[in-house]
TrEMBL record:
Protein name: LacI family DNA-binding transcriptional regulator
Gene Ontology MF terms: DNA binding
Coiled-coil region list: none
Residues covered by the HTH lacI-type domain: 3-57
Organismal lineage: Bacteria, Pseudomonadati, Pseudomonadota, Gammaproteobacteria, Lysobacterales
Cited SUPFAM superfamilies: lambda repressor-like DNA-binding domains (SSF47413), Periplasmic binding protein-like I (SSF53822)
Signal peptide, first to last residue: none
Superkingdom in the source lineage: Bacteria
UniProt keyword annotations, A-Z: DNA-binding, Repressor, Transcription, Transcription regulation
Organism: Coralloluteibacterium thermophilum
Length: 339
């Protein structure tokens, strides 16, 4: 038979409450008594009931991660970083997605209440007012790429605007003049910031060139459709700057199918530096976001916030993407290609 907490209490000649205090590391107990209880528990092979213990301690030892999507290399890398940090801190991970829908964000937040000790939230589709209405003040939360200023919540984000400007600056330095942007979803904050950086850089560097934007959805399929539209233009542009690597890769294949060579006829660049970006032909020039590192840092901050709910340290960190120059951008023959 499986030993119970009452068996341990009887064998150690203490109360059930004393066994609980000893196993939970409570300070108000003589060390001699604690050692005797732990020795008896080990000899009887006693394992505490996790569910009952969670109810008593009001802890589930589970952390939640609510993301816009779960598929694709970006989110695979992000979850990898989040999970490694959770496991290294002895926590379980519950992952859910909202599929970019604000109503589903609210539903998922409701479903996680009482099931997790803290929440990692990425919701670039929901604004600050919506999140304030649906986030519980009692639930420790850390934000990723979610704009919610002035709320006293730790947040980790990417400087999408400055990175997009850096990419356009690089393409102009390579000699490209007509640069088309394949944008992400209009309601997505990251996509809006990347488009804003593209447009501002173009106005500053090439005031005679009007911005040209082709709609996309952050998917390979939407990038392929955008590439087909660009290839069908009466006069194709010099370069394409896609708002993420998935769309850049889809675009690259569509351009190739239309007989356009990359980078000889047209340059193609992306954003994120997902693992496959360096292995396609030609390798993709992009903006490197250390995706797994973003997830790891955010999860480590959440663990610390849960542990210190009385006076949590608020941390706001903006990650600067790194320009990674590979063969797909063309025009930069003297600069060393990087991996």
């Amino acid at each position: 038979m499986t030993a119970t907490i009452k068996d341990v209490a009887r064998e150690a000649n203490v109360s059930v409450a004393s066994v609980s205090r000893a196993l939970n590391g409570h300070g108000s107990m003589a060390e001699e008594t604690r050692a005797r209880v732990l020795q008896v528990a080990k000899r009887l092979n006693y394992a505490p009931n996790g569910m009952a213990r969670s109810l008593i301690m009001r802890r589930t030892h589970t952390l939640g991660a609510l993301l816009p999507e779960l598929h694709g290399e970006f989110f695979s890398e992000l979850i990898r970083g989040i999970d490694l940090a959770a496991r290294s801190n002895g926590m379980h991970l519950m992952v859910s997605s909202s599929h970019g829908n604000a109503a589903e964000v609210a539903t998922a937040l409701q479903a996680m209440r009482g099931r997790v000790d803290g929440l990692l939230l990425m919701s670039p589709y929901a604004d600050a007012g919506f999140l304030q209405q649906n986030l519980s003040d009692a639930l420790p939360t850390v934000l990723m790429n979610t704009r919610m200023p002035g709320t006293g919540i730790s947040s980790f984000s990417v400087d999408n605007y400055a990175a997009a400007r850096a990419m356009v600056t690089h393409l102009v330095a390579c000699g490209h003049r007509r640069i088309v942007h394949v944008a992400g979803p209009t309601e997505n904050f990251d996509a809006a910031e990347r488009r804003r950086g593209y447009e501002d850089a173009l106005r500053a560097l090439l005031p005679d060139q009007r911005p040209e934007v082709v709609a996309g959805r952050f998917t390979e399929e939407s990038g392929h459709a955008a590439g087909a539209r660009i290839a069908a233009m009466a006069e194709p542009p010099d370069a394409v700057f896609a708002a993420n690597d998935s769309m850049a890769i889809g675009c690259l294949f569509a351009l190739g199918a239309a007989g356009l060579r990359v980078p000889e006829d047209i340059a193609v660049t992306g954003f994120d530096d997902i693992p496959i970006a360096r292995f396609i032909n030609p390798p993709l020039t992009t903006l490197r976001v250390r995706i797994a590192e973003l997830g790891r840092h955010a999860m480590e901050r959440l663990v610390a916030t849960v542990a210190d709910q009385g006076n949590p340290r608020i941390e706001t960190r903006t990650l600067e993407p790194e320009l990674v120059v590979r063969a797909s951008c063309g025009g930069d023959r003297t600069r060393k290609q990087t991996n």
